[in-house]
Design goal:
This protein is an alpha+beta fold. It is about 50% helix and about 10% strand. Among the domains are: about 160 residues, no CATH class; about 140 residues, no CATH class; about 210 residues, no CATH class. A hairpin with a 2-residue loop joins strand 14 and strand 15. It comes from Stephania yunnanensis.
Length: about 900
Amino acid sequence: MFLRRLGQPLLTKASEPKAALNQNAVPNARELLINLYTNTLHQIKSIPQHKAPHRDAVETFTRHRLKVCEEERDCQAIESRLGCGRVEKLIEEARYELRLIGEMIGAFAPSLTLSLVFDCLGEPFKQVQVETVSTYEAARKCNAGETDGVSLAKSLASMLDEDPVPVERISRMKLKRLIEIRVKKRVKEQHNSGKFQDLMEKVIANPETLRDAYDCIRLNSNVDLASKPDDISFEYIAEMLLRRSFDIKANTITMSTKGENKEVLVLPNLNLRIIQEAIRIVLEVVYRPHFSKISHGCRSGRGSRSALRHICKKIQTTDWWFTVNMKKKADANIVSKLFSTMEERIEDPSLYFILQSMFDAEVVNLEFGGFPKAEGLSQEGVLSPILMNIYLDLFDQEFHRLCMMYEALGSGDNANLEARKSSLRHWFRKQLKDSRNNDPYYEYSSLRIYACRFMDEILISISGSKDVSVVFKSDIQSYLINSLHMDIEETEILSTDSSHGIQFLGTLIQKRIKENPAVRAVHKLKRKVQFFASQKQDNWDAMTSRIGKKWLAHGLKKVKESEIKQLADSNSILCQISQLRKVGMETDHWYKALLKIWMQDVNAKAENSEFEVLSKNIVEPALPRELTDAFYNFQKHAEEYVSSETNTTSVLLMSSTPTKQSTTTDLLAPVSLLQKRLHRYGLISLGGYPRPTSILILQDNDEIIDWFSGLVRRWLRWYHECDNINEVKLLIMNQVRMSCIRTLAAKHRIYEAEIEKQFESDLSGIPSTQETELEMVNGMSESSVFEDDEALTYGIFHSGLCLLSLERMVSTSRPCNCFVLGCLVAAPCVYTLHVMERQKFPGWKTGFSSAVHPSLHKRRIGLCKQHVKDLYVGHISLQSIDFGAWK
């Protein structure tokens, strides 16, 4: 409210015509601004906080401007980033602010600059050039009778008729990108003679860089940067890094499983996490522009989506494909090879010293294979993605070299070989010709090789013979084993025409032949016949079951023998049953007892439902024989038509089929595995029927709904490009939504229909089939480009849903803060983390966390309400939780 009242008269004053500013450039303007802002910050420290409540805001604002002036060397760049007019005006404002600070020291009157007000009010007002005004100065002028045309009282009164200006909030990923750009400028200043030098001393061990890294951690944890930060001395950490006296092992957390075969997990505490984050940002600035095109993962615009699109585009003309599964934890050989590779671009012994110390403490957690990457798992270290890409970039380079060798040996046929090849290509082939191929031009004539690598998952597809594929695979595996010191799991070379497909990035990839118009027409007709037949079958079953239920109700009413004997039809089934009545049987129960005996006689348990028992044994025998025969003959002919094509249709298809069939690639979500996971987590029964999830019943209503909606959001976000997305939508409507409703119904002990009415608006996050498509489209349109950038959201975008159970409520005698990094809010509840599965590498994407480390099973964590929701809906991952925060 204070900013709104202050900003309106200033905006009114800004709209008045003003004299043109002096366009003459001020000499040494940048240095003058730096001195003014530095003096202002020095003066602000002497003002007590309780006397000037706006001191922190002014200090933050001035510090931001000082940082911009230090980073930018061009005055136009400073004007562009600050957006507050020309440099001459900034100098005038800075001098005025410094003078106001002096008055605040004497009078302790809070003041704010107009530029700060504009920054708070929103982006559209940052380009307005006006003079700096403060409440203290305006009051002084008003008391002295110095009114500049419009008095302060009139200006404040005029703002009552104006609407408040909405404040545009910058997304957290956009803020993260701005922070990384700021660090990027510091890194590029250290580039000299083709290498980056002194990165540890000049960039990483810089308190500003460490503060930026801490802000990135808070943004990944979805913590507001304006909230209270942790009590961390970045200057002390920077000094310890420069002295090489920072104790890595003392800043780690060790957790292990129980039993003989213990699995140990070493995680960094907050201080070490900040250092790792700073190193990560620096390494990504250095190496990201140099990665190969086949490399995906932890890169802007090159995530899992781009990898799958690349595969669908390239493998349509290939014949064979296979995956390369690596499995190896980083050892001394890998670390030595990694450092020797990094030394080609970075010359900094201090950086390698701190990295080696982290490897010795086993806190880097660099592991090839073992578990799926980019899913926000705690065992995937902060540095492991960028270090893995740096190391496997050697594989990318070797792959390109092998591709050039194999493909160059067969670019053309033998008839036109001499006319098509140049002398350079002839020399190139001669140098790379292998002795094992006597006639390489014949063997490799039409060879094409494609590859896609997402972190440590590699898919290679080859257009050529299987013998060439076997040789190429052997060369790839030999390089990984001998040069990169990897352990390789043997995989088969599969034909792309196989109906089984191949698993990659948690999805199933299949290649199929495109249907021509004639085939589509025939299949469409067959689907129509199949649908018509199934519709008639449903109507038949519904009517026969209806008649059977009426017969059953009539029999239950006619339980007395005297009423049965009065029936006109003595040959009816009811009268026949009445003849079986035993002597002495009670009148009210004889019919029910005989009905049980009759059901045992007809073996009713073998039928799928009670309606089939009535339909087949009661209703259909009583119907006219001509009617039942006609219906079943129709169903038989329809089934024959659907299962096989007629001779006329076969001739039509053979005559219209082209000589060269075009193919397409399908991406399929693992629907059968999704159903198995739903059963494992307690959402459905063995028969596939929805049931309440008992482990969630004790949680709040909002948390239960967020848990189910988080699963739906992940499915729609991950599988919206899959060809079987409609099957996923059916699971959402028939099983996930109903399980959520039944969980709430079991919690409140009321009917499901009442739950749907009571939580209608909350259940909109779990849409029905009709709403699913609209919900997905709206979600995609509202997400910004920064939120979809898988480099900024690495570990968050594909983080799986985890299962938490309520352990206890937090009391005053046993207080607990939120375990999320950077969050200091008190946690109202303590939850227990349940590890439900541990998939082998490579894993399937099912919406749930696929491979949480077993040492975290039954681990208790405190979470605030906001971060419980963030963890459920996928705004944060398990990497944002400090598992060592429990005291």
